[in-house]
């Protein structure tokens, strides 16, 4: 359960969250035609607060909107500032911030371009998973919903409608006692998890599916690739057949909300030793340092509040 903050930013203004309710005929509510982002703020080592990779998240929101043919009535800088305002106005510290672009009424037909584009930014307190959760990781199930290769380019953006399958796959996995689901495409190549990109470790080489395989252009994915290379690992973007996943030494997911999360097993079969492996743990530590402003890349990636 999230702990709702008092204020949200809606169409250019801060307003009480309890007053924010879209009309039942809101286009996006019916058809999933919209885009969103998820960002995190962290308490920094110097005592301040910072948002991790704010510019990249807002840039991706614009890219997602553009790919859907939606023009945002704001500049990137305004939305970046708005994210900071929502955190400060609610006196939040470690938080998850959710900007959403949606299309409103009055046209119920599929002519989305006739409707107004709205932007809302909500936030809630979120300190991430416990150390234990990050060590135990998320046992995963292969999702029974293959991703269509023909739609691979669409999955590069963070469109609301994609999450129909993420919800279904997550529900399917949870009913069987798993904590995560992994999407394959029609060739049985690994795509990504329900809300995270995926990495496989073998012989000190990290592999991750290329963007052409129907995966979101994840910001944590990009962060992990840089951190891993800085630590001396080779990182390659390549096709990963489902069998390579099962025989890997380590598998982990990368995403803003859950950061770097081990996948100790797939469909009940343990991966490696079935616990967080040494490379995963090293990257978890490096990620923790960088988001908290304590690494060489931090000044580039952390926007102080
Ligand atoms: N894939 C999907 C489907 C996602 O929803 C997310 C979360 N945004 C990710 C990957 C990870 O992306 P990021 O690292 O930018 O949070």
Task: Describe the secondary structure blueprint for this structure.
Elements: E1 7-10, E2 13-16, H1 27-31, E3 34-36, E4 39-43, E5 49-52, H2 54-67, H3 76-89, E6 95-103, E7 117-125, H4 131-136, E8 140-142, H5 163-175, E9 180-184, E10 190-193, E11 197-202, E12 205-208, H6 219-230, E13 234-237, H7 242-246, E14 250-255, E15 259-262, E16 265-266, E17 269-270, H8 278-291, H9 298-301, E18 302-304
Parallel strand pairs: 8-9, 12-13
Antiparallel strand pairs: 1-2, 1-7, 3-6, 4-5, 4-6, 5-18, 6-7, 9-10, 11-12, 11-14, 14-15, 16-17
Helix pairs in contact: 2-3
The protein binds 4'-deoxy-4'-aminopyridoxal-5'-phosphate.
What does this structure look like?
By secondary structure, the chain is an alpha+beta fold. The protein has helices spanning about 25-30, 55-65, 75-90, 130-135, 165-175, 220-230, 240-245, 280-290, 300; strands at about 5-10, 15, 35, 40-45, 50, 95-105, 115-125, 140, 180-185, 190-195, 195-200, 205-210, 235, 250-255, 260, 265, 270, 300-305. Strands 1, 2, 3, 4, 5, 6, 7 and 18 form an 8-stranded antiparallel sheet that branches. Strands 13-12-11-14-15 form a 5-stranded mixed sheet. The protein has a 3-stranded mixed sheet with strand order 8-9-10, with helices on one face. Helix 2 packs across helix 3. The protein is globular, with a radius of gyration of 19 Å. Bound molecules: 4'-deoxy-4'-aminopyridoxal-5'-phosphate (PMP). 4'-deoxy-4'-aminopyridoxal-5'-phosphate (PMP) binds next to helix 6 and strand 14. 4'-deoxy-4'-aminopyridoxal-5'-phosphate binds near residues 216, 220 and 256.
């Amino acid at each position: 359960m999230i702990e709702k903050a008092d204020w949200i930013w809606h169409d250019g203004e801060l307003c009480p969250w309890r007053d924010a309710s879209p009309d039942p005929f809101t286009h996006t509510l019916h058809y999933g035609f919209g885009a969103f982002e998820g960002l995190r703020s962290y308490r920094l080592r110097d005592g301040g607060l910072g948002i991790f990779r704010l510019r990249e998240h807002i840039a991706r929101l614009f890219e997602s909107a553009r790919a859907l043919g939606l023009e945002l009535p704001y500049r990137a800088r305004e939305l970046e500032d708005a994210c900071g305002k929502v955190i400060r106005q609610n006196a939040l510290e470690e938080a998850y911030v959710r900007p959403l672009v949606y299309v409103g009424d009055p046209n119920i037909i599929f002519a989305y371009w006739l409707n107004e584009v709205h932007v809302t930014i909500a936030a809630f307190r979120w300190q991430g998973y416990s150390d234990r959760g990050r060590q135990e990781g998320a046992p995963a199930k292969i999702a029974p919903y293959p991703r269509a290769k023909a739609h691979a380019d669409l999955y590069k953006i963070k469109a609301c409608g994609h999450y129909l399958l993420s919800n279904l796959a997550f529900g399917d996995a949870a009913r069987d006692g798993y904590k995560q689901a992994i999407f394959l495409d029609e060739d049985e190549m690994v795509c990504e998890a329900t809300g995270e990109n995926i990495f496989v470790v073998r012989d000190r080489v990290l592999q991750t599916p290329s963007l052409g395989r129907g995966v979101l252009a994840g910001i944590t994915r990009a962060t992990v690739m840089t951190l891993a290379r800085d630590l001396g690992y080779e990182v390659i973007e390549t096709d990963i057949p489902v069998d390579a996943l099962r025989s890997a030494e380590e598998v982990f997911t990368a995403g803003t909300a859950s950061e770097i999360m081990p996948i100790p097993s797939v469909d009940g079969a343990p991966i490696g030793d079935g616990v967080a492996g040494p490379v995963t743990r090293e990257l978890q530590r490096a990620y923790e340092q960088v988001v908290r402003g304590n690494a060489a890349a931090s000044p580039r990636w952390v926007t102080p509040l």
